[in-house]
Amino acid sequence: MQGLTTSPENTIAENFGGDAVSKLGSVQFKLNDTPDLSGKVAVVTGGSEGIGFGVVYTLLKHNIAKAYILSVSQEVVDGAKEAIAKELGQDKADRTVWMQADLSDWPRVKEVAETVRRDSDRLDILVNNAGRGIMTHQLTEYGVDRHMAVNLFGHVILTSYLLPLMKKTAAQGSTVRISNQASNLHHGAPSDTKFASLDEINSDAGPNGQYGRSKLAVVLYTRWFDRNVTRSGHPNIVMNATHPGFVSSKQSRTDIFEAFPLGGFAMSYLVEPFKKDQFEGAVPTVFAATVADKGGQYLCAPAIPEPGSELSQSEELGDRLMGLTGSVIKEKMRGEHAGLFDDIALR
To answer: Which residues touch 149 (CB under 8 Å, ≥6 apart)?
Structure first.
């Protein structure tokens, strides 16, 4: 995007761990810079481990009133709550609410969103963090590429059904922030990506291509939302996409072997000393979720706005993606969307 450039120093700061490396970045932000969040409410997908846990921990440390954690496994959540209670106190742990949700189970995502809307009178922060990593091609029970189903479609559904509550919160004078987890690997999306049909996104582009295509979609959705929601009447609802860098996580230590049984060794072991930990990886997400006052950005760690790939800057491609997103979700969910999705997300 015009005015944004990438420098070697920024590239290093964005991708690798260590305080000295982070300081090379042209825009600085540390987790300790997180403002006081008293009275605010957050929803975090994948908030029980990895980057998501780093985000939830930081929000609680800075006095968030309630954090809804969407996660597949209660066992992992229980472990996370125990760690929070031990380090931040039981009061902070009790501010978390676990909700079981697989982002590829779209009716369940809708159900969870509706539960949050009934349970809370506000929503200040939405962190769309959960995702499928670099893995092989697989279709969901709906017959949709699992990378796209989880990394984009599931979060679009969640955001859409939570949007009325976020609009209500913004109308009270608060800035509502949404952070979407993207990746620099969106540059690896197939160069002929058109988002023209379900058959196209269901085509096997290889592990890196599948992942890159879904993360390209995340950046395009973020910029589409900024044009069609934020700048179309809701300036206090701000959505940004983030790139955490190379983070030591289940995806990079374990899941990578599913796609690359031999090649995964380099990512899992040889690169491990240079990776960020879960808290370093959480930095750009926390910035986007608590400080950013401008939407439609692609924010790389620590908080550096980057242009992203040429494809990610195409408004035409973004419009085509969201048109396809709407048609796929409505077809697969049939009556489950109950009209709400049409009204607030893909009008």
So the answer is: 103, 104, 106, 140, 142
| Tokens coding 78 | 């229980």
- 166, 191 Cβ separation under 8 angstroms: no
Which residue, 193, 209, 287, is CA-closest to 242?
A: 287
Query: Length of the chain, please?
Result: 347
Tokens, residue 9? 């120093």
How wide is the angle at C-alpha 177 spanned by C-alphas 187 and 210, nearest 5°?
25
97 bridge partner residues? 68
pLDDT at 9: 82
Q: Please write the tens of the pLDDT for every residue from 22-48.
A: 777 678 899 999 999 999 999 999 988
Both tokens of residue 91? Answer: 């009061």
CA distance 344 to 327: 15
pLDDT computed for residue 245 by the predictor: 74
Exposure string over 93-107, b if 16+ CB within 10 A, otherwise e? bebbbbbebbbbbbe
Indicate the pLDDT class of residue 246, thresholds 50, 70 and 90: low
Catalytic residue among 161, 211, 221, 298: 211
Q: What percent of the chain has pLDDT over 90?
A: 72
Q: Which of 111, 108, 153, 106 is nearest to 326 (CA)?
A: 153
Distance separating alpha carbons of residues 213 and 76, to the nearest angstrom: 29
Report yes or no: 194 and 265 within 8 Å, Cβ to Cβ. no
pLDDT for 342: 53
User: Tokens 């230590």 sit at which residue?
Assistant: 253
Q: What are the beta bridge partners of residue 100?
A: 71
Tokens of residue 100, six digits: 């079981």
Q: Examine the residue annotation and report whether 68 is marked as an active-site residue of this protein.
A: no
149: DSSP letter: I
Compute the C-alpha angle 72/78/80, nearest 5°: 90
In eight-state DSSP terms, residue 24 is T
Among the options 110, 215, 275, 276, which is catalytic?
215
**Catalytic site residue 110?**
no
The answer to whether 69 touches 44, Cβ cutoff 8 Å, is yes
